[in-house]
Specification:
This protein is of the alpha/beta class. It has 2 domains: about 100 residues, 2-Layer Sandwich (Enolase-like, domain 1), CATH 3.30.390; about 200 residues, Alpha-Beta Barrel (TIM Barrel). It contains 10 helices and 12 strands. The protein starts with a strand and ends in an 8-residue tail after the last strand.
């Protein structure tokens, strides 16, 4: 059983502009950078970046866990972090696995990156600059404005996109059944729509499965699979569509990798608006998996310190 010296620091990263979703506005990203140091003085960092409304612990709960640890922690203690603290599991788990990394994998196996557009009409003006940066997959939040207004913007957005681009529409579970059907119908005529993400609420997997069978537009689930327990539950419930998984709040990385591989899930890895510490840990995890879809980590432009 290995023992590590342990330190942590809390950060706050303000967004350039509030991130608007169906959950409300988010102005400041708070998280924790942890560091483990072994007996030889070698150190690795991890990141705890909770999103409580997605099902993780709160930042206050994560801070309290770190505070209780003191200045050292063992491998056994890390493995005992409870499932009620999935962001802590990922942060400590990522730092721990970095001491014994998997064999090097070609970076060519790491999928491309998609980028997050602002909500509303502001997204249209951002497309040329983001395309020039090399992005070819874009995500746009829906369920923020009245549906008639958003569909009018969507038509302009489709026109503004490069011909080879893909667009993901993310509802964050904020649509009614009728609105979800409207979006699925209008998108079925557009080949550039990769999928609609989480059109209905967290517990409405059966309803989303029924919609997936009726419409050509693929559906992905996100909030419904926010934590490892939810990922397992969705699979048992029969979901065989796309899983948008946020590694930063999905618990221990080795457990997540094993489940994805065992069940050959169709996965998109997505950001929790973490720093480069958590992002790099997610990339290392992705490099060991056969993920074909662009990862949702193009979010750095959202922060004022980037």
């Amino acid at each position: 059983m290995s023992r590590y010296n342990f330190t942590y620091s809390i950060y706050q990263r303000p967004f350039r502009q509030p991130l608007k979703t169906s959950h409300g506005e988010w102005e400041i990203r708070e998280g924790i950078i942890i560091q483990l140091i072994d007996k030889l003085g070698k150190s690795h960092r991890g990141e705890i970046a909770p999103i409580p409304w997605f099902g993780s612990e709160s930042i206050e709960q994560a801070i309290e866990w770190c505070r209780k640890i003191g200045d050292n922690i063992t491998t056994a203690k890390i493995h005992q972090i409870p499932d009620t603290l999935p962001a802590c599991q990922f942060g400590f788990g990522s730092a721990l696995t970095a001491f014994n990394p998997a064999p090097a994998i070609s970076t060519e196996s790491t999928p491309a990156i998609s980028t997050l557009l602002p909500s509303g009409a502001t997204a249209i003006a951002k497309i040329p600059a983001l395309s020039a940066q090399g992005y070819s997959t874009f995500k746009w939040k829906i369920g923020v404005l009245p549906i008639v207004q958003e569909m009018a913007i969507w038509k302009q957005l489709i026109t503004a996109l490069p011909a080879s681009a893909k667009l993901r529409l993310d509802a964050n579970g904020g649509l009614t059944d009728a609105e979800a059907e409207q979006w699925l119908e209008i998108c079925s005529h557009q080949a550039r729509i990769e999928f609609i993400e989480q059109p209905l609420g967290v517990d409405e997997i059966d309803r989303m499965q029924a919609l997936a069978q009726r419409y050509d537009t693929p559906i992905a689930i996100d909030e419904s699979v926010a934590t490892f327990a939810r990922i397992q539950a969705a699979y048992i419930q029969g979901w065989r569509g796309i899983y948008v998984i946020k590694p930063g709040i999905a618990g221990f990385p080795w457990r997540l990798a094993e489940f994805i591989t065992q069940h050959q899930l169709d996965v998109v890895f997505s950001s929790v608006l973490e720093t480069s510490v958590g992002r790099d840990a997610a990339f290392r995890l992705a490099a060991g998996l056969n993920l074909s879809r662009s990862m949702g980590f193009g979010v750095e432009d959202w922060f004022s310190d980037s």
